[in-house]
Amino acid sequence: MGQQNQFFRMKVFIEWLLNAVYHSIILYVFGELIWHGDLVLENGQIAGHWMWGTALYAPVLLTVLGKAGLVTSNWTKYHVIAIPGSMAIWWIFIAVYGTVAPMIPFSPEFHGIV
């Protein structure tokens, strides 16, 4: 079935592709508007693209997980664990990374942020 392309429709594929481009543009434009002046840190330096990219990753992940949740027709316990769990793991990771990384001075731009 899959190799014979019985379920593949080029129109649906193009719609998904255009939807992904639309979401990307929306996220980029809002990220650019929010971080337009860039973040000035307490030491006077600018946080830059690392901070901007990290902050933008959360809405991107939320968009992807939301889309996965919307297209899932049969929810199992694994879906319930994986979809919200991925977002929870990201928030835990960024809290730990934002605390530990400046201490070893790996990411000084996160000092005092988390």
Order of helices and strands: HHH
Shape verdict: elongated
Count of separate structural domains: 1
Distance between the termini: 50 Å
Unreliable segments of 5+ consecutive residues: none
* Fraction of residues in H or I helices: 55-70%
Mean pLDDT across the residues is 84
Membrane topology: Multi-pass membrane protein
Keywords: Magnesium, Membrane, Metal-binding, Transmembrane, Transmembrane helix
Subcellular location: Membrane
GO cellular component, one term: trans-Golgi network
Write the layout of secondary structure elements.
Elements: H1 10-34, H2 48-71, H3 77-100
Helix pairs in contact: 1-2, 2-3
Structural description of this entry:
This protein has 114 residues and is mainly alpha-helical. The chain has one domain (10-110). It has three helices and no strands. The chain has helices spanning 10-34, 48-71, 77-100. α1 packs antiparallel against α2 (48-71) and α2 (48-71) packs antiparallel against α3. The longest helix has 25 residues, at 10-34. The N and C termini lie far apart (50 Å). The mean pLDDT is 84. It is a multi-pass membrane protein. This is P-type ATPase C-terminal domain-containing protein. It comes from Verticillium longisporum. Pfam families: PhoLip_ATPase_C.
